[in-house]
Amino acid sequence: MLEARNLAVEFASRGRRARAVDGVNLTVGAGEIVALVGESGCGKTTLARTLLGLERPTAGEVVYDGSPLGYRPRALKAYRRQVQLVLQDPMGSLNPRQTVYEAVAEGPRIHGLPDEEQVVADALSRAGLRPPERFFLRYPHELSGGQRQRVVIAGALALNPKVLIADEPVASLDASVRGEILALLLRLRADLGLSALVVTHDLGLAWNIADRVAVMYLGRIVESGPVEQVLTAPRHPYTQALLSVLPESPERIVLTGEPPDPTRIPAGCRFHPRCQVVASGRAAAAGIEQDCSGKALPVLTADPVAEVACHLIDTRVPSEPT
Fold first, then answer.
1. Do 25 and 164 sit in the same domain of this protein?
2. Are 83 and 151 part of one and the same domain?
3. Pseudo-torsion of CA 52, 53, 58, 60, nearest 10°?
4. What is the mean pLDDT of the chain?
5. First to last CA, the chain
6. Which of 35, 143, 145, 207 has a Cα at 20 to 30 A from 227?
């Protein structure tokens, strides 16, 4: 349904070029949920904005349903009926002066959809706000955090999209509400056949909701594959470090070095300055330390098999039998 092909996005930053996205291949299939994970500043949100057409790529292309994305206003308007965004902060993404009805009706009005009231009622109902008429005249401050997030989801559903891009969809919610919103996204996939790209730093969320996971570091996917395979047997040192912070992890991995700077991408493996394999001497013992610091790694493909970009291991590994 949605694909990034060799996507790159650069920005000017203090006289230098910041490579926020630096060669990404990623696909979201029909009815599939893909989790894009990584720490803050790795390029996840920039990639999501580019897939939505909010940023134009410096190189590469976005492809929807087999056709490259066009950037003329009419083409973008038609595209955004099919691909909708769900933001992480419902209070920030809802206008406090608009009622729930006005917030959900905004998209249908822009696109000239008929039967506006019925469209709004159906969207609220599908988002779990029932009876929908009870919420029409309420304002965001009168709702709970979970209800506000459901209104945001209803605003996306009002256009009957095929793909949702959810940027940290439960990050601002209480733990008791998070499960409800994740269950809603899974139900929408089952009932409507929706595809989704879920952007998150939370590997626990990825485990609970995704079919596949892509791990991003400093503008590039460093490991991807079926969620069970990647998260139960992570091969890239960065994925291992991310998983080590989960409560059930037997060992905490503390990364060395500074947080990544997209204006100063290191040679070789971009993770090597912070890599625990290099810091512990295992890379030197394996005879790959020079490769880690000087030999570029290939860009991962969008193949559904498990892939990893690390000098210590093979790039591609076979998927586990289902």
1. yes
2. yes
3. 70
4. 91
5. 23
6. 145
Number of domains in the chain: 2
Query: What DSSP letter does each residue of 33-61 carry, written as one string?
Result: EEEEE--TTSSHHHHHHHHTTSS--SEEE
What is d(CA 275, CA 256) in angstroms, rounded to the nearest whole number? 7
The answer as to whether 277 is a domain residue is yes
Contact 158, 118 (CB under 8 A): no
Q: Do the Cβ atoms of 216 and 222 come closer than 8 Å?
A: yes
Q: Are 169 and 44 in contact (CB under 8 A)?
A: no
| Residue 45 placed within a domain | yes
Tell me the pLDDT tens digit for each residue of 33-52: 999 999 888 999 999 999 99
33 & 124 share domain: yes
Find where tokens 């793909």 sit. 163
Q: Does residue 77 sit in the same domain as residue 144?
A: yes
Residues 244, 126: one domain?
A: no
Q: Are residues 198 and 232 in the same domain?
A: no
Per residue in 169-209, pLDDT (tens digit) is: 888 788 888 889 999 999 999 999 999 999 998 888 899 99
Q: Residue 182: what are its φ and ψ, rounded to 5°?
A: -65, -40
CA distance 269 to 68: 30
* DSSP string of 171-189, one letter each residue: TTS-HHHHHHHHHHHHHHH
- 297: phi then psi, degrees, rounded to nearest 5: -95, 150
φ/ψ of residue 84, rounded to 5:
-120, 155
* Same-domain pairing of 198 and 262: no
Boundaries of domain holding 183: 2-210
Q: Looking at the domain assignment, is residue 68 inside a domain?
A: yes
Give the end of a domain, one of 210, 242, 260.
210
Burial class (CB in 10 A: 0-12, 13-18, 19+), 74: exposed
User: Within 13 A of 308's CA, how many CA atoms are on the CB side?
Assistant: 21
Mean pLDDT of 88-117: 92
My answer on whether 98 and 233 are in the same domain is: no
